[in-house]
Amino acid sequence: MSSLGKYRVQDLVPSAGYHLNLLAKYGFIEDAASKRTGRERPWRACVRGVRWAAGVPEPGYAEASRMLRDALIAHALDALTAFQREEAGCTAEWQDAAFVLADGAYMTPEERRETHGVAPVR
Predict the structure, then answer these.
(1) How do the domains of the chain map onto residue ranges?
(2) Bridge-partner residues for 31, per DSSP?
(3) Residue 9: which pLDDT band, with cuts at 50, 70 and 90?
(4) Helix, strand counts (H, E) of the chain
């Protein structure tokens, strides 16, 4: 069972709405109004990833950047580990639909500047 399995859906709705609106405020998701049915309020992702600027000379920035990166990696690893642990308990349909996606790019700084990927946050 996932960590959310112990909560009733109705207990999560107010909190989910607050967090979804916060994500929308900062441009991570947007309301998918064209997909609405009844009281449902579907959302869609606006960004594929997050990138922050390197080499900012502010005190503590480099350490905070490393801590954020470490937290994102740990979260992804926890999610993959939970998936592996719970996969056998899923229906065949879910097991067939599940996948793990990882991507990366090897390029020089010049090549990176020429790409139209995720914009750095400054």
Answers:
(1) 8-50, 54-115
(2) 43
(3) low
(4) 4, 4
